[in-house]
Every structure is written in structure tokens, then in C-alpha cells.
Amino acid sequence: MSVLYVTEQGTTVHKLGRRLVVRKLGHVIETVHTFNLEQVILFGNIQLTAQATTFLLQEGIDTVFMGTGGRYRGRLVSGDGKNILLRRQQFRKAEEESFLLDIAQRFVRGKLNNCRTLLRRHQRQRPNDEIQTALLRINHSIRALAGTRSLDEIRGREGAGAAAYFGCFPRLILQEGFPFGGRTRRPPKDAVNALLSFGYTMLLGTVTTAIQVVGLDPFLGSLHAAENGKPSLVLDLMEEFRPLLVDAAVLRAINRRQMVPGDFLYQEDVEMPAELAGDEPPAREDYPVLLRPESIRKWILVYEQTLRQRVLYPPLGTQITWRQVVLEQARRLARHIKAEE
């Protein structure tokens, strides 16, 4: 399966037969056959013709709209209902406190295990006392999960493990020009956070697609509280994939010089995007660090290469791509909800 990313501003996506054609000022930039197309992701000022919109809805091709800075805006959703029986069971299970606690523990344990895996890889290559201390703290958080009796306790253990993990993250960055003082989200205050935030938004799209394919309701989770418009289940399932699909890709891109400091717009270079500004413009030091428009495609390529990597997936006993792993984990979650696993 393939994904079409459109990042060139001012372009229009047309339908021509069973192909999508991306044009700008009358010139064809890209043509993609939809036979194997799973998703279309549009960044910023991109237009869809009415014919292309109708075609994407009819074919069930997931279409996601993002801001130029990588912020999620929304997606095209067809009127077709999917797996209502599964969703009914999902809502029933959401009333069972024991089920919610169990599944939330699993999400957090998966995330912390993968954080530990990433740190161990770097510790083997370049031993560091801060990384070793972080590993001990993460191990403690994992062991303590078994004794948690509430969602707040589980979130607390996740928070403690994440604090230890990101506390030593600067020790994993080997190139100059990429300071990292901790996780900052809205807005990202440095280039590392800009890559992380953009990557997590792309991961959100990947996981949302998997959940929609399986037929689960993306807005009813456990670890993340249900709120209007918040895809709680997507955020839940994302947790275990953040370290290995986004964080590891960020480190690889920086340490291999696939991304360099010149790929970013810094506070002194940018105007605050309207989607982040709010009613009162913030101070200049609170402006975001953003990927340059021409560098977004570089980061997308790194992320896509990661999704295409083949890894051993123990439940199947075979190697599959990371994109397939995400889908298989969504399917396992559905089977768990139906008490089939």
C-alpha cells in the first residue's frame, strides 16, 4: 500500500480516470494511480477538485488535511458504517473498570518497553551514566505498573517513565546544532521538538487509518480520557509506537545528517501561524520552530522509510513492515475487545 503526500503549496489534486493528478499553474507535478493507494495527506494550501473528493470518498481512501507546520486539521469521512457489532462491544467494555485498567496498563507497558529498547541500543554503542540511570527509572516504572489500581496511577507511572526517557534524550543526539531542553509541544521550541511533533502527527494518521480499517471507534479509549473531538483510542494505540517509529527516526535523521539545522525556521525567522497564534500574539521567544517547506518532504521520506522497514512480529512469527505491525496491533486490540484473544 502507498501514501500520497502533497506538500507543494498552491497545488490542486485532480481526478483523471483512476489516477490522481497534482497540478500547479497548469503544470503536472505528480501522477499517482489509485490501485494501491491507501492514504492521501495534504499539507497546507492544497485544493481538491469536487471530482477528486467524490472519488476518494467512494474508494474509501483515507484523506487527511494538515497545516503547513504539521498540525492535524481533519480528514474526509464517508458515510459508510463499519463493524457496528464491534463498536457496540467496545462501548460495553468501556463500562468495565477492570478492562480499562488492564488495557491502559498494556498500552503504557508497551510504550515503556520500547523506550527502554531504544535507550539500550544507544547504551550498547555509547555507554553513558545518564542513560543507565534513565533505564533504571524506566524499569522501576514498568515493575510498578502491576500494582496500579486506577487510571491516574497508570498515567503517573507513564509520566515518570517518559520524564526519565526524555531527560536523557540529549545524550542520544550526536550532531551539533540540535539542542534539546525537554519536550515542548505547542509550540515546539527547538528543531528536535519540531521533528517529534511533526512525526507524532504523521503517526496519528497512520494509527487512525488502522483503527478505521478494523472498525473500532477512534474516540473511545482508556488511557486517554474521552473528550469531544479527541481521538482517545488513536492516542492510546500510538503510545507503544512513538519510541520506535518517531523518536528513533528523529535520532537517525539527525545523527546521519539527513536533517540539518538549516532545514528549520527559527523564532527570529518566522511569523506565528494563525492556527497557533490565538487571540493574543505571543512573545517572539514563544514562537515555534518549524520545518522549512522544502524540508518537510525530507522528513516525510524518513518517516515513510521507517514504516517500510520489515521487522519480526512475534504474534505471527514472521517479518512484516512497521505499517503492517500497526494494523496487526489494531486487529489484536479488536480481538481482545471481543474476548477472542
Protein architecture, described:
The chain has 341 residues and is of the alpha/beta class. The chain folds into two domains: 75 residues, Ribosomal Protein L15, Chain: K, domain 2, CATH 3.100.10; 254 residues, Four Helix Bundle (Hemerythrin (Met), subunit A) (Up-down Bundle). Helices cover 48% and strands 16% of the residues. The strands form four sheets. Strands 1-5-7-8 form a four-stranded mixed β-sheet. The protein has a four-stranded mixed β-sheet with strand order 4-3-2-6. Strands 9-10 form a two-stranded antiparallel ribbon. Strand 2 and strand 3 form a beta hairpin. It is globular, with a radius of gyration of 21 Å. 35% of the residues are buried. The model has no long low-confidence stretch (mean pLDDT 87).
Q: How can the largest sheet be summarized? A: 4 strands, mixed
State the name of the first-level CATH class of the largest domain: Mainly Alpha
CATH-defined superfamily of the largest domain = CRISPR-associated endonuclease Cas1, C-terminal domain
List segments where confidence is low: pLDDT < 50 over at least 5 consecutive residues.
none
Structural class: alpha/beta
Overall structural domain count? 2
**Portion in helices:** 40-55%
Mean pLDDT equals 87
Assign the CATH architecture of the largest domain: Up-down Bundle
- Number of distinct beta strands: 12
- Proportion of beta-strand residues: 15-25%
How large, in whole angstroms, is the Cα Rg?
Answer: 21 Å
